[in-house]
Amino acid sequence: MSQPLSDRTIALVKATVPALEAHGLDIVHEMYARMFENPEIRDLFNQSHHGDTGSQPRALTGAILAYAGNIDNLAALAPAVERIAQKHVGLQILPEHYPHVGDALLGAIKAVLGDAATDEILAAWGEAYWFLANILIAREARVYGEQKATTGGWNGWRDFRVETVTRESSVIKSFTLRPADGGAAMAFKPGQYLTFWFEIPGHPPVKRNYSISAAPNGETYRISVKREPQGLASGWLHDSVDVGTILKVAAPAGEFFLGQSPQRPVVLLSGGVGLTPMVSMLEALVEGGGDVPVQYIHGTHDRDTHAMRDHVRALAAKGRTVRVIDFHQTPLADEVAGRDYDHAGLITEEWLVANTPVGEADYYICGPRPFLRAAVAGLSLAGVPSDHIHYEFFGPADELLAA
């Protein structure tokens, strides 16, 4: 267990906040440049989040600021720390990787701040870094242990064979995966994701997370992937991966998941490809046969982009307490309200407040950032307790800590 941070260290780290606000992004860019000199460390990261337009440097800058500003109130960061630990487990981050990151961070602080980064300040940041690192290492060790001990579980990368490929919409394909070794597929919590190691010709190893879009069955997993504009991994999956392809997969992980045996009404709310964890949750709820009311509210552009519509409606017909409501932002000319969709336009906070049980329900939300911001803010302002609002977005792990 980490020793508590000294009062002197806390004071010194908080005193660096103005310098971090002014120079934090430069420090992070320098830090990554130092880390990526080591190909083993570079290959641990999702490179699409880096570079001049990447979101990871900005996210980590915010994360470092959040840590410095809350270093005397670390309980406020606990949910974000859990998210980062789960991401690290997916990426197979191990204790031996942490010294490389710590050395790069301290070297970057010194390189950017120069004489302002005194030995005392560097020592304080070193202590603060290892305090957080040891918390993450301990949590990650527990998760790795749980994965290994679970039936069908594993650590590291395991080969899965693509068993089926299904076109779900004009932009989304589903891939069903079965362990190539013939063993069981570890159970997971609906809402969690798999991490993949792709070997795409002409590129360094590529790491990506994809939510599992089916309920646990002990035999296979399904992911449903949107082709992103200029998306290296999604384009390769859509164009080059077919039945029989072998993919390297890490065990299920993630802190966003459906609560076990829900006692309160459940509202599943998704936009676009954010439906993937929601379909997993909906399948699990229907299979569980519980009595709690379930609403699944989904928004997409139109009929052509609406993935898994028939599957979701079949689940709703099977579930005794399930209701599905579809929003199409810009319905096609031949779409018919009541047949192809329920409401035209966007899902609004006003509609959610008027049509969902805001005083009782647990909300599970996934979609693009503007969609998430609007939904979470609207529900919070309507009085939904924060512990009744659960959400997932697809991006760097540090963005939640930055928030």
CATH class of the largest domain: Mainly Alpha
What is the architecture of the largest domain at the second tier of CATH?
Orthogonal Bundle
Unreliably modeled segments: 396-403
How many strands in all?
Answer: 12
Binned, the helix content reads: 40-55%
Distance between the termini: 27 Å
How large is the radius of gyration? 22 Å
* Widest beta sheet: strand line-up: 4-3-6-1-2-5
Give the number of helices.
Answer: 13
Number of domains: 3
The biggest sheet amounts to: 6 strands, antiparallel
CATH H-level homologous superfamily name of the largest domain? Globins
Q: Average pLDDT, to the nearest integer?
A: 92
CATH topology category name of the largest domain? Globin-like
Percent of residues in beta strands?
15-25%
Give me the secondary-structure topology.
Layout: H1 7-15, H2 17-35, H3 39-42, H4 56-69, H5 78-91, H6 98-113, H7 119-149, E1 158-167, E2 172-179, E3 193-198, E4 206-211, E5 221-226, H8 232-240, E6 246-253, E7 266-271, H9 275-288, E8 294-300, H10 309-318, E9 322-328, E10 343-344, H11 349-355, E11 362-366, H12 369-381, E12 389-392, H13 398-402
Parallel strand pairs: 7-8, 7-11, 8-9, 9-10, 11-12
Antiparallel strand pairs: 1-2, 1-6, 2-5, 3-4, 3-6
